[in-house]
Amino acid sequence: MASFEEIGPRSPVTESIRVDKVSPQARLFKNLRAITVLVLALVGLIPVFAMGVTALKSRADVVAVPPRIVFEPTLEGFVFLLTERSQLSGAALTTAQENAEDLGLFERIALANGQRINGPSDFVMRLRNSLIIAGGSTIASVTLGLFAAYAFSRFNIPGKDDLLFFILSTRMLPAVVVAVPLFLMYRQLGLHDTHLGMILLYTVFNLSLTVWLLKGFIDEIPREYEEAALVDGYTRLQAFFKIVLPQATTGIAATTVFSFIFAWNEYAFALMMTSNTARTAPPAIATMLGRGGIEWSAIAAGTLAFLIPVVIITFALRRHLLRGVTFGAIRQ
Amino acid sequence: MDLTIQNGEFVVLLGPSGCGKTTTLRMISGLESVTQGDIYLDGRKVTWLHPSDRDIAFVFQFFALYPHMTVRQNIAFPLQAEGQPKDMIESRVREVVEMLRLRHLLDARPGKLSGGDKQRVALARALVRRPAAFLMDEPLGALDADFRETMRAEVKRLHISQEATTVYVTHDQIEAMAMSDRIVVMSDAEVQQVGTPAEVYHDPANLFVARFIGSPGMNLVSGQYADGAIHLPGSNRYNVGNGWHTALPRDLGGSSEVIVGFRPEAAHINEDGAIAGEVYAIELLGAYTMLHVNLDNEENEIVHIRSDRQTRYPIGTAVRFDLDPEMVRLFNPQTEMAIRREVTP
Amino acid sequence: MSTEVKARVKAREIDESRQPKRRRDLSDRAIVNLFIWPTLVLLIAINVFPLFYSLYLSFTDYSAIANQAPVWVAFENFGRILADENLWEVFSTTGQYVLFSVTLQLLLGFGLAMLVREKFFGSGVVTTLILVPMMLSPVVVGLFWKLMYNPTFGYFNYLLGFDNPSLAPDWLASRFAGQPVPGLALWAVIIVDVWMWTPFVMLLILSGLKAIPDYLYEAAAIDRASSWFQFWRITLPQVAPLVLIAVLFRTIEAFNKSFDLVMGMTGGGPGTQTEVVAVNLYRLAFLGQWRTGRASALAYVVLIMVIAISNIYIRYLNKMKGES
Fold first, then answer.
1. How many domains does one find in chain B?
2. What is the pTM of this model?
3. Does ipTM come in above 0.85?
């Protein structure tokens, strides 16, 4: 058989590529590569699948040995997670069972375990706290960061580089160096275990991220637009609101989501600075272990509920991902 | 394209951007695949051979020097990649460095060099392997104008001293004319003409070549052929020479439309000249003067005429000029091809 | 003045006279102040001030739950720290954690980046899929890996082929078939850390790989460089700065952020096998005897270490950048 050099590729070449990339050997490598990556990606995602699957298992299925891959899905885990129940027995149990058709889905599942739903569980409150605190701090940090980023981007501020580095360095501190005195401070000021205290804290921590990211985005907007506006008689402020802001919307969106995710995922300070009222979800999930037995399906359901928004957002944000995670230090 | 290049020849692929000259060069080198046809080097069919097996060197427009290596390492790279022994590498590098006068730059990094120096390093890297052929892709394109002329001479000098077969791509027709043994004029992925600089300059094969070669290009004036003469704009009449009388009707068929071409230096200002016009603009270029003459004030047919540097005609002056019959060329407007004149033996 | 400048000044005057009277117009200076100071004030209040307060506390024997005011003890805390054997063990654990985790992330991340750099069918989707672990909350990740690692009903052992639970490794308890295997738990944590952060390293290196211009490889191909030669002499030197940045980021985070992951998975156990510095600090400051002063001292020691390591990295980075 003649070699590749003599007869050329099997099917005609349609795009301009290097000769050595057209050979059957190159094609083979390319396919191998694709398969390897796909396999690795799927293997890497197994834990995520596993968690999703566990959340839908019944209590019995969860602890089955060996672990079941095929099973009957149920919302039991979510019921355990999201509701406060009490055990029924005797007459109350039979009465409830007789009136089964009047009950909603969750109630029916609880009944199957001999329980009655009393109301939402603590976890629901924790989720609410997470939303409030992450949301509030995100709005604050993005707003403040936006103003600061604009100023850093457009003006010559004395010591600008040093200031920017200072802002970045706050990220490098180990949480505990700051946690101890903050804890004392908060206790003094009555901010311990309050929503306001947590929002303030997260705002500050996200500021280093938002200032750097937004400055990067604003740097990319040509100054000529504002200068034209200034010549036309607008004030700086007006130029900022009417011209820079609309152009920076993608950047602001990306930054908002990154801040939200960082605040949403935060655990260490949530653990140290809250106890009950303002406690967010991450510490709550971790402590679900010690409550009358390990409710793995509930924990799995909790983690799932917690992770799904982030997964969705990751997909939406993939193009900005590198920028966000390295604080805009790397331009993509 | 069907082209054969001789040993030691300097062939230039010339044409405007997008005409396919770079693509052709890259196909020869193996950096791009061929959809149809074959490439042979030294009798070997290399159409699908790996670029590294073709025994060629490639000089890129943007130098392609490895930024993290010194000049010395850059030049030594090809030989190191081949696995040559150290002393052989050293002697070759030294040889090439002397040839291109790079000794003082050996330990610098490409980032700190000027464009001209970078290109010399790129040339050194190409030379160090002593390949069978050199392929150069607009190597002087990224340089400043003053550098370009110096480097042009350097490249040509190298070509002669090395007796190296070279295929050179450029869009600058002055470069092509100055350096080449043969020029391949291309446009829209088609070969327009292959010939020596003289051939391409004096006997363009079609309107494109006539316009593209020369600075400014050939004057091309439309006219009608009737009764042995061509009627030009502005009631001018040009009597064609003998050799054209048979060729013209045969080539033009029934049509009488014809295009007269002549270079600026083919026209001579003459009070009794055959063709009349009015000065439209005048360029004083130091060594000579370029007159823009309008043959027809209503239709605006402007030709360029070269005159000696003393001439200073105010705009609007009426002038007359003659055309050197040996230097006049005629073209068929429909086919855009040159009409071959019958040469009487 | 030249005519040009005169004209420009004249134009400016005309412009200004044409504008409506500016009433509440803020000068540029005012804007800068207004925009920046709130941020700076917040940062100073909640970041800088505690830093100094912490420094002060490190020289005292303060305990946050005791009702006494802090008492100055000068360097006693630091002395105790350096003499504490348990602490050296904690540092060793942390060191192993950082070393192995970062190295593995580097190798895997680099490999993945090399695989993904050229387009192939579905490469966009797959790249996105790979990124998911990076965005999840570390403590939550720790929790569900805890479930995965469960020796009886967790998926990990099952998928690896250990069908019989009594003959399978109990990762988080550092046991195998009933016998203790010291260090197993630490490796279990390292595996999860690698799982989470390899995508980050991959992303970073991938962006570096994509930035290498094609013509360098074309020139190398014509220069008869083998694939290995090209990798060693072109690819590697070009991405080296990014690799260093990746390692820097990951090292700092392994010192600071490992808290979330470890607490979620093992709480520092079994015993102290996975007690990295961050966890140890937490226990010292917020559990047991609440030795606030000592914890502050330890925190400062860690801070100084992190700064020192960062400086070494950055200096190396600048050296590399200066060369290219």
1. 2
2. 0.78
3. no
